[in-house]
Amino acid sequence: MPSNDTPIDFSAPAVLRKWPSKNNERNAPALWPVPYLLVDGSLHECIQRFLEIPVKQQHLYEIHTAPQGGLVTAVMQAEVIVEIARLREYL
């Protein structure tokens, strides 16, 4: 959990990326088996776009940004993104 003296900067630069997939699973044998860019904007924008993705597909996405405190890491997976979105109103 972030401490109260370390607020999250939702205007920080971030990118939303998606892993190549097949049948709703990561496609390891894909031609380029790395996540590709979908959104290049602020952390807020990336979280908003992520929340528009169906829950069953969210595990294929991640947000890349500069680390901030303990909760915001360089690469955030679906579970953390959802938690930050829930906490956003209180931070």
Give the fraction of residues assigned to helices: 10-25%
Described by strand count, sense and barrel closure, the largest sheet is: 4 strands, antiparallel
Order of helices and strands: EEEEHEEH
Low-confidence stretches: none
Overall body shape: globular
Largest sheet, spatial ordering of strands: 4-1-5-6
Q: From the alpha carbons, calculate the radius of gyration and give it in angstroms.
A: 13 Å
- State the end-to-end distance: 11 Å
Number of strands: 6
Mean pLDDT: 89
How much β-strand is present in the residues? 25-35%
How many structural domains in the coordinates? 1
**How many H/I helices?**
2
Structural class: alpha+beta
